Amino acid sequence: MKFATSNANKFAEAKKILGDDLEQIDIDVDEIQSIDVVDVVEHKAKAAYAVAGEPVIVEDTGLYFEAWNNLPWALIKRFLSTVERKWILQMMHTFENRNAKAICCIGYFDGKDCTIATWTVKWTIATEMMGESNFWWDPIFIPEGYDKSFAQMTMEEKNAISHRGKAFREFAKLSKNELPIHI
């Protein structure tokens, strides 16, 4: 199976779950600007298929801060390209509500049908950076029920509870059956 992503960190997490048969295709497709992450993933899967010329999986995540009326939604890529983690912490310091969630979608398109698996994980936004990570938000998000950030966890710990890990496991269950699956 081929995973269309230019993000080596996403690929490493996916490969841990989906196995050694997963192959990275290093392409980055234009994303539609939508607040609905499912719409973004469906478009992205079809665009990646058009570039690759074969069935591919893609991933995208929407980020939702309760204190900001769920902003930035699925517009996270543009948001993160202009905002530093420390700015998020500064912008959040006046809010009592530090709850956030991520909705991860995995899409598979075979040229005819699109299968999408989603998973949501709730977080609390830290008051300071907690750990080091190559993933943008890992040092500032503490998963619900934990007292450490994703950046302070091993990859195995993180994959067991993260939005991406859970979405890829859900996708793996679906893909054990014959794709496509209409969900």
Write the layout of secondary structure elements.
Layout: E1 2-4, H1 8-18, E2 23-25, H2 37-52, E3 56-65, E4 72-73, H3 76-82, H4 85-92, E5 99-109, E6 114-125, E7 141-143, H5 155-161, H6 163-176
Parallel strand pairs: 1-2
Antiparallel strand pairs: 3-4, 3-5, 5-6, 6-7
Helix pairs in contact: 1-6, 5-6
Name the features.
5-stranded antiparallel sheet; alpha+beta; 183 residues; Maf protein; 34% helix; single chain; 6 helices; two-stranded parallel sheet; disordered C terminus
Major beta-sheet overview: 5 strands, antiparallel
Poorly predicted tracts of residues: 178-183
Q: How are the strands of the largest sheet arranged?
A: 4-3-5-6-7
Report mean pLDDT, rounded to a whole number. 87
What CATH calls the topology is Maf protein
The rounded Rg comes to: 16 Å
* Sheet/helix structural class: alpha+beta
Strand portion: 15-25%
Helix percentage: 25-40%
N-to-C order of helices and strands: EHEHEEHHEEEHH
Tell me the total number of β-strands. Answer: 7
Can you name the CATH architecture? Alpha-Beta Complex
Given this structure, which CATH class is correct? Answer: Alpha Beta
* Domains (count): 1
Give the terminus-to-terminus CA distance. 20 Å
Give an overview of the whole structure:
- The structure is a single chain.
- The chain is α+β, with helices and mostly antiparallel strands.
- The protein has a single domain, classed as Maf protein (Alpha-Beta Complex), CATH 3.90.950.
- The chain contains six helices and seven strands, in the order βαβαββααβββαα.
- Strands 4-3-5-6-7 form a five-stranded antiparallel β-sheet. Strands 1-2 form a two-stranded parallel ribbon.
- Mean pLDDT is 87; it is low at 178-183.
